[in-house]
Design brief:
Mean pLDDT: 76
Number of helices: 1
Distance between the termini: 49 Å
Radius of gyration: 24 Å
Shape: flat
Largest sheet: 3 strands, antiparallel
Amino acid sequence: MEALAWVLISLSLFSSAASQAQTGPAQSDTPPAISVQDSHPIKIMRSGLKQPSKGPAEHFTGSVQIEELFPAHDPSRVGGGKVTFESGARSA
């Protein structure tokens, strides 16, 4: 029972310290300034507009379809896609 109390106290102190670190020492009513250089245009597209492609044999076995959701743009190297596995297909 005493160990449970110590765990609860420790978690409480940890969450309190974490929330103070996130909010910072003082909060203001004004949002942070964003320069034009930092802004990126947002492109909204309907799902299913791009034709899916067949998954490459070096990454998948069986029939796999890949639909690109968003490509990587410099300086990012991360893109995203929806992968559909047909019955019996798997990643290699």
